[in-house]
Amino acid sequence: MTLTKNQITDTIQNKLNLSKNEAYDIVEEFLEIIKTTIEDGNSLMISGFGKFSVSEKKARKGRNPATNKEMMLAQRRVVTFKCSGQLRKIINTPN
Q1: Does 95 have pLDDT greater than 80?
Q2: What is the pLDDT of residues 15-68, one digit of tens each?
Q3: 48 within domain boundaries
Q4: Mean pLDDT throughout 72-85?
Q5: Which of 29, 33, 65, 94 has a 20 to 30 Å separation from 46 between CA atoms?
Q6: What pLDDT score was predicted for residue 1?
Q7: What is the three-state SS of 38-77?
Q8: Overall number of domains in the chain
Q9: d(Cα 49, Cα 29) in Å, to the nearest integer?
Q10: What whole-number distance in Å separates Cα of residue 53 and Cα of residue 37?
């Protein structure tokens, strides 16, 4: 199951006894902080959760699997996530 932004907003609204708009604003602001931090090329570490990092990928040769034709893949930035030890332990603990 995928957790949506609306479901996160509803959970925050119920747990913190906030209005729907207040909870939505909190979620939006939190996501905006994450986006601008990563967009600037900085890493973002959330204690007990994990670390988002931006890596530079160099241009490289690739192949179109449909046509088997070689092509150049452009240089790009990618976001990677590494979960914390605490989160890994929670994920791997049997229910």
Answers
A1: no
A2: 999 999 999 999 999 999 999 999 999 999 999 999 999 999 999 999 999 999
A3: no
A4: 95
A5: 94
A6: 85
A7: HHCCCCEEECCCEEEEEEEECCEEEECCCCCCEEEECCEE
A8: 1
A9: 18
A10: 10
What residues contact 27, with CB distance under 8 A and at least 6 apart?
A: 5, 8, 9, 12
8 in a structural domain? yes
Q: Is residue 90 part of a domain?
A: no
Assigned token pair, 91? 């994920």
Map tokens 């914390």 to a residue: 84
Dihedral over alpha carbons 4, 8, 11, 16 (to 10 degrees): -170
Q: Which residue has the tokens 């929670």?
A: 90
Domain containing 29 equals: 1-40
Q: Of 81, 88, 42, whose CA–CA distance to 33 is shortest?
A: 42
The one-letter amino acid code at 35 reads K
CA–CA separation, 79 and 52 (whole Å) = 7
